[in-house]
Design a protein that fits this description.
The structure holds two protein chains of two kinds. Chain A is an all-beta fold. Chain A has no helices and eleven strands. In chain A, the strands form two sheets. In chain A, strands 2, 4, 5, 6, 9, 10 and 11 form a seven-stranded mixed beta sheet that branches. A four-stranded antiparallel beta sheet of chain A has the order 1-3-8-7, with no helix packed on it. In chain A, a hairpin with a 2-residue loop joins strand 5 and strand 6. Chain B contains no helices and eleven strands. The chains are: A mainly beta, B mainly beta.
Chain lengths: ~110, ~110
């Protein structure tokens, strides 16, 4: 099925560990982004990409890295996990930045840092 | 800075009633507004997308309206059912230094009482 696929669905990390959250879309979307969702704070933008080879920071980028080597994939790396990064992470994609074509979201990764 | 507000934060209504969810935003220069549904522990499912040039969109029992000048959108749900119980999020899309930016409200948690 076409859409945005995120892996893993759940992850527990120890403080200081690193890991990569995977995101892939098969809709040939230019736009991809990562959000985190925390209780009472809504979804906040971490990083985004407007196309292969181009990334930029969002509202809460500290502690995270991204890369976009292909149109399909947009992994999010946690460099040294901290308890404050316990959250639900969503990847989203959109066809074009022109006039806003609507976003498709993945099912999320629930991350706990202990 | 765009701010998106959804009031109330939670709403409970008996099955069969019609209801309205509200979303307000502070900057009217938007590309579009999108309504999402989120079930507990799940990702976001897009319900309706209203382009900035449109006034409303309909899908089945759902109708979303947009009044850009007043910075408001409503999601109308007709003949509510227990399966409609979920959190409903609105998000506005706008230009941000040549790129597209999505800003979310914190959602309305809807409970339909059988």
């Amino acid at each position: 099925n076409a859409g945005v696929t995120q892996t893993p669905k759940f992850q527990v990390l120890k403080t200081g560990q690193s890991m990569t959250l995977q995101c892939a879309q098969d809709m040939n979307h230019e736009y991809m982004s990562w959000y985190r969702q925390d209780p009472g704070m809504g979804l906040r933008l971490i990083h985004y990409s407007v196309g292969a080879g181009i990334t930029d920071q969002g509202e809460v980028p500290n502690g995270y890295n991204v890369s976009r080597s292909t149109t399909e994939d947009f992994p999010l790396r946690l460099l040294s996990a901290a308890p404050s990064q316990t959250s639900v992470y969503f990847c989203a994609s959109s066809y074009s930045r022109v006039d806003g074509a609507g976003y498709t979201f993945g099912s999320g990764t629930r991350l706990t840092v202990v | 800075k765009q701010e998106v507000t959804q009031i109330p934060a939670a709403l409970s209504v008996p099955e069969g009633e019609n209801l309205v969810l509200n979303c307000s935003f502070t900057d009217s220069a938007i590309y579009n507004l999108q309504w999402f549904r989120q079930d507990p522990g799940k990702g976001l499912t897009s319900l309706l997308l209203i382009q900035s040039s449109q006034r409303e969109q309909t899908s089945g029992r759902l109708n979303a309206s947009l009044d850009k000048s007043s910075g408001r959108s409503t999601l109308y749900i007709a003949a509510s059912q227990p399966g409609d119980s979920a959190t409903y999020l609105c998000a506005v899309s706008e230009e941000d230094f040549g790129n597209e930016k999505l800003t979310f409200g914190t959602g309305t948690r809807l409970t339909i009482i059988p």
